[in-house]
Specification:
The chain is an alpha/beta fold. It has one domain: Mannitol-specific EII, Chain A (3-Layer(aba) Sandwich). Helix 1 packs antiparallel against helix 2 and helix 4 runs antiparallel to helix 5.
Amino acid sequence: MILTQILQPTCIKVPLEGRDKNLVITELVDLLDANRLILDREVALEAVATRERTRSTGIGSGIAIPHGKCAAVRELVMALGIAREPIDFDSVDKKPVSLVILLISPADQTGPHIQALARISRLMLDEEFKKALENAPSAQEAYDLVSQRETR
């Protein structure tokens, strides 16, 4: 899976305005909604919030990947937010996050969802890439970084 097949430049927010986990998740769901990628904002928001209540999606190393499955989308959708001031996300390593990658997929399509999570995790293992992404000055430059990294 190539992330730029599901991530659009208009679905990247630099910088995030929210200062806590719930506000940031809402901000990214609203971004997907503004881009007409979700059918029902409330259903999508509730799916992600329900998953987050189960266990934090703050995976450590400054990264959070909130996600959910629901009928509010026809296909896997993705939004990326970069926080200038790290956000407490109840991460497994107890450290705040700067990169928030939101995924929402149809309830009946597990494969693409798992593939995207795996791809994101592999990309974020590249510390140089992760730092460059954290410091991207704009949504377009963040998208370009992902695009360039995906085509290597």
